[in-house]
Amino acid sequence: xxxxxxxxxxxxxxxxxxxxxxxxxxxxxxxxxxxxxxxxxxxxxxxxxxxxxxxxxxxxxxxxxxxxxxxxxxxxxxxxxxxxxxxxxxxxxxxxxxxxxxxxxxxxxxxxxxxxxxxxxxxxxxxxxxxxxxxxxxxxxxxxxxxxxxxxxxxxxxxxxxxxxxxxxxxxxxxxxxxxxxxxxxxxxxxxxxxxxxxxxxxxxxxxxxxxxxxxxxxxxxxxxxxxxxxxxxxxxxxxxxxxxxxxxxxxxxxxxxxxxxxxxxxxxxxxxxxxxxxxxxxxxxxxxxxxxx
Length: 294
Prior knowledge:
Number of helices: 9
Strand content: 5-15%
Shape: globular
Number of domains: 2
Largest sheet: 4 strands, mixed
CATH superfamily of the largest domain: paralog of FGE (formylglycine-generating enzyme)
């Protein structure tokens, strides 16, 4: 994770117990790499007060990277339900993208976009597991290869993007949480903002701001690992990590849907704000995930 941990554990706990607003803000600065707003205060305070490897994480993800375990990953596999619940609250957060004029595609076609909400992160294993448990929906293919569906079956990877989900699966999940998939135009607007930037952070390749082949992870990474790669509207992981389904058909028969953003399996050349591919609605693969919109 992109952690800037400068204080020992005793200092972290002392500052949690300190009611001064600046003490909490310093905690966020030193430890918290994910999205924060006031609605998350109680959840974040609980997580920061729990031993989740806060002082043990690497300060930066640098290529080539091995397996990265984040404090949120530890939280999602924690024995205490309230800790797991707090971590899921972090992952469920959305941001409001205001109405505006988007520049779509390489040609920068002008398109008016209505206000909408979009997930700060792609949907993760832990969120999808909750959905499977509560609905009895068929789990992803790689989960079916395991003898028992449980948190332990993907221990410490609860905050990685879920994969092996088709567009049809993603739409069922989106309906379950009272949402939908974003359109191609909405997705690109959320990733790019109001200008013609190629990457969420600007116009130049700059690693390690996302998980592409240049990073060397050879798999997914925890959501929120790249604070320096967030979009102008505050979304994480829109470039690299996993392709993300949209609700936009590629063909007239609507048997194929557009997916955006590239994945860890692809280089920066194929992982940009305007990168897209198309797949059959019932197709699932190890590099395709999704995020929700409303």
